[in-house]
Amino acid sequence: MISKTELEHAARLLKEGQLVAIPTETVYGLAANALNAEAVARIYEVKGRPASSPLIVHVASVEMARGLARDWPEAAEALAARFWPGPLTLVVERTEAVPGIVTAGLGTVGLRMPSHPIALALIRLAGVPVAAPSANRFTELSPTTAEHVRASLGDRIECILDGGPCEVGIESTVLSVAGGAPVLLRPGMISHAQLEAVLGRTVAIGGAVEGAHPSPGMHERHYAPRTTVYLVRNGQLPAGRGAYLYVDRRAEAEFAVAMPPDAVRYAQVLYEALHRADEARLEWIAVEAPPDGAEWSAVHDRLRRAATRE
Ligand code: AMP
Ligand code: MG
User: Which residue of 92, 105, 144, 273 has the smallest Cβ count within 10 Å?
Assistant: First the structure.
């Protein structure tokens, strides 16, 4: 893990307007002081990400979140009480304290309190909320280890905090509670059903609404390895040499990876498996479609985005 000195150094960098790569329980983030527009501009520059994509702001408490929200609806209060710290981003109306560059000019901001102890300690120590998208170049696969961050951004940032492999392994669930009726903008490991249970009401699924937001999840090649990814059924592999990720083995391949049979553990290792398959530099990566069922919906969503072919 990391020392107090390292953490203090990282907090100082954040306060000075520099970038720090941080572990969170979802994926590694490229963090900057969210209240410093110049620092946030560096995130876009380093990632090569278009400034039309809003960033998630990470906080260390519900109070810190409330301070950035023009309106903190009851739904936000109930969901934060139940799921924070954890992999749920709440989109609410923002105050003027949040620079427009953080939210791609939107009047709303996505807020999340991460549960990773290093992320929390760093935000507390820096004393400011941190804007942090995944710590990879734009369109690349999200990093779930410090090594992934080093491979993608090691030549562009000085400070990478190593907090071990990410426990959740895929990006947070994103829910908008800004417009009155709650809308799920991105599925994650906190499920649609869990959100509805806490809210005691129907949660719309955001295809159309998400289209109204310039959100990075909409870019086709988001979350994708460099190697062509095929989502396959019944072991229908392409010709040539490739990697085959399966729960239920249906075929033989050069590089075969057994994936865990439950959705939580599958999500945990998905990006690591894709990173390794990608590094093998084969002709393709084929992923056997995992089971259907609500608990798999976030995994299916990320696989659809990673797959260039179906
Ligand atoms: P990433 O930083 O790559 O994990 O992606 C951030 C995600 O947060 C996007 O896919 C959006 O769905 C969502 N998001 C962040 N801020 C907002 C916002 N103000 N309005 C709508 N969606 C947002
Ligand atoms: Mg990303």
Answer: 105
Closest CA to 257 of 221, 282, 239, 294: 282
pLDDT digits (tens, 9 = 90+) for 59-97: 999 999 999 999 999 999 999 999 999 999 999 999 999
Asked if 124 and 271 sit in the same domain, the reply is no
CA 191/CA 197 separation, integer angstroms: 10
Q: Cα angle at 104 between 55 and 193, to 5 degrees? A: 50
| SS3 state at 148 | helix
Determine what percent of the chain is predicted with pLDDT higher than 70: 94
State in Å: Cα 72 to ligand 1 middle. Answer: 18
Q: Output phi, psi for 113, to 5 deg.
A: -105, 110
| Residue 216 forms part of a structural domain | no
Rounded to the nearest angstrom, the distance between the alpha carbon of 301 and the centre of ligand 2 is: 14
Out of 102, 205, 209, 213, give the residue to mutate to test ligand 1, the one with the largest number of ligand atoms within 8 Å of its CB: 213
In a domain, 46, yes or no: yes
